[in-house]
Write a structure and sequence with these properties.
The protein has 634 residues and is mainly α. 74% of the residues lie in helices and 0% in strands.
Length: 634
């Protein structure tokens, strides 16, 4: 974005103004809970990527490079999905079967119990999820890449690239992405692909008919609305009559109803939202009683933003819809020319040119991009893929990306119209499917989803002639403000978080070095206290300190059972009570820090029962009963 502004590019003020409130509200929520920091950090990363793409992709050459890289990613993702389904998943099931008895004993489950059967049924489902945590998100991303390839192929059809072979490449990539969708078993992604295909069909049918082609924007928005309406209609139908009835959309309706109650519960929720970390407890309190699930997302991109960010979420929802409209208009007005090649021959002559005219600078850009993406993946997943067999399979991904992306950026292959057709189809699919999914919620998938939508809306048919907007000084405001917000977030959150996490690691090392002595235990508890003081928004040190202190009290209580000396018993009893007091002090500190979650309430009830068992103090059991009654209200 800075480079774009420095070279005189126009500033997309509308989208910047729509996005900036989210940065402010996210900063306010980030300090309240570590989960807010991680999730909202992912959201801000996605929005930042979108703003950068909106400006950088004003240049068709950059947009073409980005589209080529996205299309090429279909191959490693398909490889990843196939490796899981045919290799990793069978190994996981076999390992579980081999150690099933011990595993059930550790869980405290009986063989054949409902818990065992449910877990086994889920384990045996070969649903690929790749790097995206959930199989439905993996399906959503790959469905978007499939539509990107199909839309690009449609553009090539209109350009007459059927005889030379270029259209075979997007066809191959579409098949690879569709295979990955099948590996995910995401029915929603498959249905979204069927609906979004109407966008591609309309673009093909209305070629050469400008008036009809203008209806593509209402069509794209209608598909997003249709997914939303489908959930409402399913909710109005009520529960299924038997266990085989449809529940997926019904449960989404339950999420949305509870989200509406959360948003309207108080005026503050409407203004600034509740933050992602508070959603799960609020949902558990306000959900439909017939819904057994506990979720941390409404499974809707617009509702998630509105409930968690308030007014800023409404602005983000508007931003996404406006981006989709811009993408549709760009696709409707795009011609077949390759805009970055100002001196390219006419279309008829271009057909006679070699399709493999790869420029060295383009090749270097792909290599750098590939090194960043796959280098990061290897750094994160290196321990998993370092076996010779898995490394061999994994290495096929970067090789395929380098080869395919190089072909796609080659002259006369991926033209402007093909890129825009594909991007519109992919953006429409993402927004339609994420009326019922979490691709815009999960931090590891949010940047990619925002990138695709922003690339689809970037530029315009006369982008090269567009004048730069604003004075030289005002045009530097957006990157400066975004940089300031990033520095502010890092200064107020990243440094304390890093200190807290370092202390947690130190506490683990200390306890492992000498787990059976009281001095090591006391040092570990002090380190945990330092950790929660360094970063009060992380519930983990409070949890660990309270549990560890109560375990120490339990150990002393067991020693007292065989101790006959009154002096030793009295002294040990005093130490035990000190540990019990420390356990509750950690929970009190968590409450003071605003971490009064249902989990901590449950933990307080459990520790209260343990304290009563250790000390026999009257009235403690009644306090535990009151805590469990409070839990039932949630």
């Amino acid at each position: 974005m800075t480079f774009h502004v420095a070279t005189g590019g126009r500033v997309r003020w509308l989208f910047i103004l729509l996005a900036l409130p989210a940065f402010v509200v996210a900063w306010l929520h980030a300090g309240r809970h570590i989960e807010n920091l991680f999730i909202l950090g992912g959201w801000l990363s996605g929005i930042s990527v979108a703003l950068a793409a909106l400006h950088a992709a004003e240049r068709p050459a950059i947009r073409k490079l980005a589209v080529a890289a996205l299309l090429a990613m279909a191959v490693p993702l398909a490889i990843d999905g196939g490796t899981y389904v045919y290799n990793e998943h069978p190994d996981s099931v076999a390992f579980f079967k081999e150690h099933e008895e011990g595993w059930l004993a550790a869980k405290g489950w009986e063989k054949g119990s409902p818990e065992h059967e449910i877990y086994l049924r889920r384990l045996e489902q070969p649903e690929a999820f790749g790097a995206f945590t959930f199989s439905n998100i993996f399906g959503s991303v790959n469905a978007a890449l499939a539509m990107l390839a199909i839309g690009a192929g449609a553009g090539m059809l209109l350009r007459g690239q059927t005889r030379q072979g270029p259209i075979a490449l997007p066809a191959f990539l579409a098949v690879a992405a569709c295979m990955a969708v099948v590996f995910s078993h995401s029915r929603g992604a498959m249905m979204a692909m069927v609906l979004t295909a109407s966008v591609v069909v309309w673009l093909l049918v209305t070629a050469g008919r400008p008036r009809l082609k203008r209806l593509i924007a209402p069509l794209a928005v209608s598909l997003v609305a249709l997914a939303f309406i489908a959930v409402i209609a399913r909710g109005m139908m009520g529960p299924p009559k038997d266990a085989t009835g449809e529940r997926s959309l019904l449960f989404r309706w339950h999420y949305w109803k509870a989200s509406a109650a959360i948003a309207t519960e108080s005026g503050g929720n409407l203004l600034a939202g509740i933050g992602p970390a508070a959603f799960q407890d609020a949902y558990a309190r306000l959900k439909d009683p017939i819904n057994p699930e506990e979720v941390r997302s409404a499974h809707n991109v617009f509702i998630d933003h509105i409930v968690d960010l308030g007014v800023a979420g409404w602005l983000l929802a508007a931003m996404l819809i406006i981006l989709l409209i811009h993408a549709a208009r760009g696709a409707a007005s795009a011609g077949p020319s390759i805009q970055e090649d100002a001196n390219s021959p006419p279309a008829d002559d271009a057909k006679t040119q070699s399709a493999l005219q790869i420029e060295i600078p383009d090749m270097l850009k792909i290599v750098v991009l590939m090194a960043i993406v796959f280098g990061t993946e290897f750094a994160v997943r290196g321990a998993v893929i370092q076996t010779p067999e898995r490394f061999l399979v994994w290495s096929c991904g970067p090789i395929a990306v380098l080869f395919i992306a190089s072909l796609l950026v080659a002259r006369n292959w991926l033209d402007e119209r093909s890129a825009r057709f594909g991007l519109l189809a992919a953006a429409t699919l993402l927004l339609a499917h994420n009326q019922i999914e979490m691709t815009f919620f999960q931090p590891n998938s949010t940047p990619l989803a925002w990138l695709i939508v922003a690339l689809a809306a970037a530029g315009r048919s006369d982008a090269s002639k567009a004048p730069s907007s604003g004075s030289p000084l005002t045009r530097w405001i957006p990157p400066a403000v975004l940089l300031l917000l990033a520095v502010l977030l890092a200064a107020t959150q990243a440094a304390p978080l890093s200190r807290g996490q370092s202390l947690l690691a130190e506490a683990q090392r200390e306890l492992r070095r000498d787990p059976n002595t009281r001095p090591a235990l006391d040092r570990t508890l002090e380190i945990l206290k330092e950790s929660r003081e360094a970063y009060p928004a992380d519930p983990k040190p409070y949890d660990w300190e309270s549990r560890l202190a109560m375990q120490a009290a339990g150990t002393i209580r067991m020693m007292l059972e065989n101790e006959r000396s009154p002096q030793v018993r009295q002294r040990a009893d005093g130490i035990m009570r000190q540990y019990i007091a420390r356990a509750f002090a950690a929970l009190d500190a968590a409450r003071e820090a605003g971490l009064d979650s249902v989990g901590f309430l449950r933990q307080r009830a459990q520790l209260t029962i343990a304290a009563h068992r250790f000390t026999g103090q009257p009235g403690v059991s009644q306090e535990a009963i009151k805590l469990y009654e409070e839990l039932l209200k949630h």
